[in-house]
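Standup notes
- DV: blocked on the single-chain target, sequence here:
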Amino acid sequence: MPAEYARAFARLENHYFANAVFLAPGLEILENLHSLADVPGVIVQGRYDMICPPLRAHLLAEGWPRARLVMVPAAGHALSEPGITGALIKEMNDLRAVVGR
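- DV (later): unblocked, structure below
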């Protein structure tokens, strides 16, 4: 990983964590799933994600009626992992086919 990329990525992550990931108290997604009841969605989750544990994805999927969970077996958190990248591309292509664009 080039040093410039590592510094930029660290700044971005620090910005999110310094701002409580931009979630105000009481506005957490799991506490407000009722607001997503009619919204379709796909949750792409790496099985070995240590940053966003799979348990959270399962809880999100259980409480979100129109969501589908895609568990990527040999992946962690990073978009750069082939399994995550492949799953996201597949889901976007499937969405494009449905939307017609």
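- Follow-up: Residues 1-31 form one domain.
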